[in-house]
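> forwarded from #structure-qc
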């Protein structure tokens, strides 16, 4: 034990401080060793006062729209082979770098963050620039529930009932020009409410992602406003985020405040940081190993069962035609 050296993340050189993987593993490591309390000492107090939240579901904003909840399940999207992940797991085991859960869980750091009111700016190749009020937008949509597989690039997975509406409906409301080939999403950037932004100043904030238009218009692409029949807890991306179940989790930005249509492939947060490890497409594919680990299997959150990873995360039927060059066999060329 005495020889275990924990390198605090903020002392890492910038070139090393760019991997999602290192970060999660460290947290799992600390938790596994039961070092939570010591961890606070080793990593320094988090600054600010203790979280007023008793549990991860206390972070559901009081002023989130609740009309339409719980929404009817769309039975087209079922996951017969896996258990639904327990709600407490899905809302306490999170990735949301704007809150840096180095010494606390992310949900415990979300108190200052006020997801409502929020607006989304619609920019770029559109008929007209618009600013959408998020609460109004949510109230204007028919909400439905979809049970989706979710696969993080770090080989953990969950099965979650998301509430929301198709991304295609939001895109239609934005009225992009026919010249738009891609769409870019930007997450909220509020350093005063999100403790991870300045603490991890080496990241290119705000978080940003992008899709080709045909991907964004696919039936599976879903704007998430809630989970488990209630509005989203803050740590899961309130007021709204994307779920793209055939892609690795990081392709789905949380707390979106800007949508931009372009005629070029946009940069993305992880691709710009580590182009060799995180591609633009980032489809779930067991045939494309990560540079530092295999993607052939994944661990289910809660049950800790190890299961094989499926091409497009089991959504071939919906998206296979979009990707003629995606490696279908192990050992093929590594198109990312
Ligand atoms: N804005 C923002 N969006 C984000 C992230 C983030 O750090 N910031 N992390 C991504 C990653 S790596 C994953 S795995 C999922 C995690 O979603 P969850 O916490 O609801 O499981 O959110 C994605 N969206
Ligand atoms: Mo992730």
């Amino acid at each position: 034990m005495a020889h275990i050296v924990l390198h605090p993340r903020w002392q890492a050189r910038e070139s090393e401080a760019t991997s999602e993987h290192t970060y999660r593993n460290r947290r799992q490591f600390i938790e596994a060793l039961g070092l939570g309390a010591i961890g606070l000492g080793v990593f320094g107090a988090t600054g600010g006062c203790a979280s007023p939240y008793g549990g991860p579901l206390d972070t559901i904003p009081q002023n989130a729209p609740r009309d339409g909840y719980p929404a009817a399940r769309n039975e087209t999207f079922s996951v017969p082979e896996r258990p639904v992940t327990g709600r407490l797991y899905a809302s306490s085991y999170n990735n949301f770098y704007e809150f840096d859960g180095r010494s606390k869980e992310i949900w415990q750091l979300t108190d200052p963050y006020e997801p409502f009111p929020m607006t989304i700016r619609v920019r770029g190749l559109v008929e007209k620039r618009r600013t959408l009020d998020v609460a109004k937008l949510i109230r204007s949509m028919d909400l439905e529930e979809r049970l989706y597989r979710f696969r993080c690039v770090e080989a953990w997975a969950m099965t979650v009932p998301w509430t929301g509406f198709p991304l295609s409906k939001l895109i239609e409301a934005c009225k992009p020009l026919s010249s738009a080939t891609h769409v870019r999403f930007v997450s909220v950037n509020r350093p005063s409410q999100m403790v991870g932004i300045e603490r991890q100043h080496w990241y290119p904030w705000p978080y940003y992602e992008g899709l080709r238009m045909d991907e964004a218009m696919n039936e599976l692409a879903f704007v998430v406003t809630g989970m488990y029949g209630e509005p989203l807890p803050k740590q899961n991306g309130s007021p709204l985020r994307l779920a793209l179940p055939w892609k690795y989790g990081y392709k789905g930005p949380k707390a979106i405040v800007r949508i931009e249509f372009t005629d070029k492939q946009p940069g993305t947060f992880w691709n710009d940081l580590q182009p060799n490890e995180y591609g633009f497409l980032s489809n779930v594919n067991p045939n494309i190993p990560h540079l530092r680990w295999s993607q052939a299997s994944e661990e289910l959150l809660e049950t800790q069962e190890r299961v094989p990873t499926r091409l497009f995360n089991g959504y071939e039927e919906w998206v296979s035609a979009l990707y003629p060059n995606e490696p279908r066999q192990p050992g093929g060329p590594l198109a990312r």
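QC bot note: Residues 1-17, 32-48 have pLDDT under 50 and may be disordered. The longest strand covers residues 156-166.
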